[in-house]
Design a protein that fits this description.
This protein is an all-alpha fold. The chain folds into 2 domains: 2-85, no CATH class; 95-134. It is 66% helix and 0% strand. It contains 6 helices and no strands. Helix 1 (2-25) crosses helix 3 (47-58).
């Protein structure tokens, strides 16, 4: 009987040591339900109950359920971004190699420059007209 009690005590003690080390090595942002400091206190003070509480409610488990979601877990890029593997997907190219794109960019830039010059010319004419009309003779 003593052997069974001692063996059970060693298992509980090993679980507690594991949980203490796990709490200290887990990133604070990954701790669930409570801040990391609170988990440290709970595991250190409440021995076996604290260790079990940490495993159930605090330890960040990366289970299969969270891996199936693209925004959770450490899923591979193939699982997270299936649109990259889609057949017929447009592969981006270097814009410097696309003459049609470059000519369109140049045309739009020239239009914007001309419209700015026209607006600025109209503003200057309005300002000059206002200055010359307001001057006493």
């Amino acid at each position: 009987m003593l052997f069974i009690d001692g063996g059970f005590g060693l298992i509980v003690f090993a679980l507690w040591i594991f949980c203490v080390v796990d709490v200290f090595t887990t990133d604070a942002v990954r701790c669930r339900n409570l801040p990391k400091g609170v988990w440290v206190v709970i595991v250190l003070l409440f021995f076996d109950l604290g260790a079990i509480a940490w495993l159930v409610a605090g330890h960040p488990w990366d289970g299969a359920g969270s891996r199936s979601l693209p925004y959770k877990g450490n899923a591979g890029t193939r699982d997270r971004f299936p649109e990259y593997d889609r057949p017929g997907r447009h592969v981006p190219t270097n814009p410097d190699d696309d003459e049609a794109f470059l000519s369109e960019v140049r045309r739009r830039a020239e239009q914007q420059r001309q419209s700015y010059e026209q607006r600025r010319r109209a503003e200057l004419e309005a300002e000059n007209k206002k200055l010359f009309d307001d001057r006493p003779e």
